[in-house]
Amino acid sequence: MLIESNAAQTEIARSLVPSREILRVAGREGRAVAALNFYNAETLRAHINAANELKAPLILQTTELTIDYLGIDLVVSMAQAAAREITRPAALHLDHGASFEIVRKCVDAGYSSVMIDGSKLPFEENIDLTKRVVDLARASGVSVEGELGHVTQNADNQDISRFFTRPDDAQRFVAETGVDALAVAVGTAHGFYKGEVNIDFERLREIRDAVGDTALVLHGGSGVPDVLLREAIRSGIRKINVGTELKNAFTLAVKRSLADSDEIDIRRTFAPAIAAVQEVSTAKIGVCMAGEN
User: Fold this and answer.
1) d(CA 149, CA 119)
2) Domains of the chain, start order
3) Residues whose CB is less than 8 angstroms from the CB of residue 133 and which lie 6 or more positions away in sequence, other chains included
């Protein structure tokens, strides 16, 4: 029986799975899952290496901009190949899907998880849009993440607390949409932070208690100190998104590589960038895997 069980786990790990399956296990074990954006073959290679080094499950993410850059069929094929190589379960997730149409495109193409971001819409319209996406995705077994409140850009220079998620709204949103995961606004933001990161942990714990088993997602994970990420996990976060730090590590490493050498073989030029991104990926996965400890 043990051999059969291990064989079954290996088979699961060789294909993309809905993120709900990965997040459900993380919830039971009191930890989180790193959701890492990839932009090209090099960043994807770094994530594969990091996940296998730590024997960790992984959520691979792309935004619509990356889909436009690479082409959706190539994105899905790359992620499927990655899932065959990663030794633990992996999902392919659409990050910040802005419309029903892009979500449908990703579901049809083979994404195993999608996010519909209706956070800028009025509450009732956000519910209606998210429910439509859930109905669509369920038919294909695809997981759905919604967003309530609004996670802003650090460059917005505004009082972000007015966009924070309210626990009562979260409870109703989850009940009426049936989402598998909920991105919440509790103090983080996208992009580089200009000052201290302040997360409203009391609010986060109230949201956790209000939504039950629904996985909570922390966007804007780049630049957040590890001590705050660990407290966020203890307070109910089960998925931590990282993008900015990965792009920064890659770009800086490529600049150094080009400045220090006349090398024209891009495989050698990009090797330091893969290593730099892998270092960030490994660190983020490590914090998530450590969980509530």
Assistant:
1) 6
2) 2-290 (3.20.20.70)
3) 97, 100, 103, 114, 116, 144, 146
Handedness of CA 186, 215, 167, 62 (dihedral sign): positive
Active-site amino acid positions:
95
Q: How far apart are CA 97 and CA 93, in angstroms?
A: 10
What is the residue type of 166?
Answer: R
Asked whether 282 and 249 are in contact (CB, 8 A), the reply is no
- In the numeric block, the tokens 């009562």 are attached to 168
* pLDDT by residue, tens only, the chain of 293 residues: 233 344 444 444 569 999 999 999 999 999 999 999 999 999 999 999 999 999 999 999 999 999 999 999 999 999 999 999 999 999 999 999 999 999 999 999 999 999 999 999 999 999 999 999 999 999 999 999 999 976 665 555 566 667 789 999 999 999 999 999 999 999 776 666 566 788 899 999 999 999 999 999 999 888 899 999 999 999 999 999 999 999 999 999 999 988 877 888 889 989 999 999 999 999 999 999 997 66
CA distance 184 to 176: 16
> b or e along 207-239 (b: 16 or more beta carbons within 10 Å of the residue's beta carbon)?
bbebbeebbbbbbbbbbbeeebbbebbebbbbb
3-state secondary structure of 96: strand
Other C-beta atoms lying within 10 Å of the C-beta of residue 13: 17
Place of tokens 């419309």: 99
Sign of the alpha-carbon torsion through 185, 285, 287, 11: positive
Closest by CA position to 93, among listed 32, 41, 19: 19
- The one-letter code for the residue type at 56 is A
Signed CA dihedral, 230, 231, 236, 239: sign only: negative
